[in-house]
Amino acid sequence: MLGPVILAASRSDKMRKLVSAAPVTKPVVNRFIPGETVDQVVPIVEEAVGKGLELTLDVVGEDITTPEQAAHARDAYLELIERLGDLGHGTKAEMSVKLSMFGQALEGGHELALANVRPVVEAAAAIGTTVTLDAEDHTTLDSMFAIHEELRKDFPQTGCVIQAYLFRTEADARRLAANGSRVRIVKGAYKEPAEVAYQDKSEIDKAYVRILKILMEGEGYPMIGSHDPRLIAIGQELARRAGRKLDEYEFQMLYGIRSEEHLRLAAEGHRMRVYTAYGTDWYGYFMRRLAEKPANLLFFVRSMITKN
Ligand SMILES: Cc1cc2nc3c(=O)[nH]c(=O)nc-3n(C[C@H](O)[C@H](O)[C@H](O)COP(=O)(O)OP(=O)(O)OC[C@H]3O[C@@H](n4cnc5c(N)ncnc54)[C@H](O)[C@@H]3O)c2cc1C
């Protein structure tokens, strides 16, 4: 019940100001977003790689309102890639990007987002790593898939994300699996209407399994983005049945969630990539993490009450 309310708040400017300014917010935010600058995230990359984990790094930010902010977002990624180049971890540290942060929702946004993301993908390829395009709300996806296809002409390793809760996704999965793409499958984190998305958790889980089967049996590289123990076990089984070796698919989870499971899967020999977000514009990302698990919200509210 609480999830949709929090997701609605994640798009409210009033709530953004209130939550961002509350002095007790920061320690709760840090659980999910471990830094604000490249300097703060570099030691986290080193520690994770040292433990046998891989990463996908996200400079937080979305729903920007000017082309200058979009250019700033591009530059933040370029700065990150320069530092990653020095570390030399190759594909062990890749990037995730949200096209809304690159200007997708502005006038002429499709072309603007493509123009901003291309140099990021190029720079990533130059240091031997990759970029994955995150999936945002359903109205942005035709543009995201078109940009993905365009980028793949020169950089076939560019990945994208599909969301199990959308009715359209089985068809998207078939297309992407047939053309050999890297694809992250997730349940979906936005508030979507019943006309386009399953609302019932068990329907979403069933769709997730159907879609994962399509990806595992296809030509591409499936990335299982979930913390759900049942889906992780099913993912392992589907990979085995499809005859995939351990390096022919991977698991992905978010920083700060089920960290012991990250290590367990890596110790079993799986590729385990941790989605690690950093930066100052963390509000939207943080609110989606609260919406996924109401206990997070209770923890947050309790810390506000006890500290005030
Ligand atoms: C690597 C990665 C990338 C993602 N990229 C996108 C994207 O591009 N677009 C998009 O729409 N969504 C994205 N998501 C979010 C995704 O859509 C889900 O909202 C999120 O993963 C929760 O679903 P779940 O599969 O973990 O299952 P759930 O059933 O939600 O969770 C299973 C269990 O995991 C734990 N858990 C899950 N979420 C939390 C949390 N926030 N805090 C604490 N514990 C939690 C709980 O123990 C819970 O019982 C991404 C998720 C991951 C892991």
Automatic annotation (TrEMBL):
Pathway: Amino-acid degradation; L-proline degradation into L-glutamate; L-glutamate from L-proline: step 1/2. It comes from the Bacteria. The keyword Flavoprotein applies. Transmembrane segments: none annotated. Pfam families: Pro_dh. PANTHER family: PROLINE DEHYDROGENASE 1, MITOCHONDRIAL, PROLINE OXIDASE. This is proline dehydrogenase. The lineage of its organism: Bacteria, Bacillati, Actinomycetota, Actinomycetes, Kitasatosporales.
